[in-house]
């Protein structure tokens, strides 16, 4: 995901409401850290609305669309904003038809943004799971409704497939149960069709596309309890999921980053101590062998972080939460050629649950976050 982000998980709600108190830390025994690398963070224009768990999407025109998210009371926003990298300012754009958090946002080949599902708020229990979806048109700044999911869900994952369709998988339903179901959105018809279900029902997992056209789902929490090491592959040609190599360390609330060489980097997340443990370890998935191998560990254990692939092929991990003191300002870089992490400049604001977006000029825009306010900043490699 960007980036993920963006695009989040159901377990985040559990952690946030529980106070995010940690009692464990995994020691790093892998490749030792190298010397500190240069890299600077500078403040840029502030968001008009303080929001966390929002989505951020780079548009073809170079601007960044931030949509939805939650206030400090976990009520969702319908509003959306645009960041202009040439002026460093945020301006409101059209609002979504529904408030949403824990939704997904996917850039389609036609330049529009597909926003799917989510919840209108997490202040009540059980939170409502939205089945609705809508499209943002950058040329008009307006949102229009499109076909609705067959199963309402939030904290799901969305992956753009090579055929232009969008795969939406997993998530939590209004009942509070987790679904292994998956659906495909066809932009040419605006309709959803069901496809193969996950082999293992899970939440707090991550998903990403692969260069071979398949989609990878890894880790997470089992619906029956406990962390998962299992990973699965979705094949668009068959519509089915198959098991692939398992992670060396079971983990949830991690990040998956598609590297330039086609491998997948997984970094951090929850460790074997569950909601109260944080991992610094990292692993690589090789699609050609279906196996995971350990690589250098981060200098800081973290979850809720962002992982952004830079233009030079390195991965910037920023912020998140650790065992103490909570939100992090520290950032570090992963070098695929050496398998090592090096510390880089720290953010001006410690944050978690934020977004990280690679801009067309090679800088990274970090914005928002849980209880972070309206601040945004730029990383210059």
Question: How would you describe the overall organization of this protein?
Answer:
The protein has 381 residues and is mainly β. It has a single domain, classed as Kelch-type beta propeller (Neuraminidase), CATH 2.120.10.80. Helices cover 2% and strands 36% of the residues. It is built from 1 helix and 34 strands. The protein has one helix at 10-18; strands at 2-3, 5-6, 24-25, 40-44, 55-58, 64-67, 80-84, 89-93, 104-107, 113-116, 133-137, 142-146, 157-160, 166-169, 182-186, 191-195, 202-203, 206-209, 215-218, 221-222, 231-235, 240-244, 255-258, 264-267, 277-278, 282-286, 291-295, 306-309, 315-318, 331-335, 340-344, 355-358, 364-367, 376-380. Strands 4-34-33-32 form a 4-stranded antiparallel sheet, with no helix packed on it. A hairpin with an 8-residue loop joins strand 33 and strand 34. 51% of the residues are buried.
Into which percent range does the helicity of residues fall? under 10%
Total beta strands? 34
The number of distinct structural domains comes to 1
CATH topology: Neuraminidase
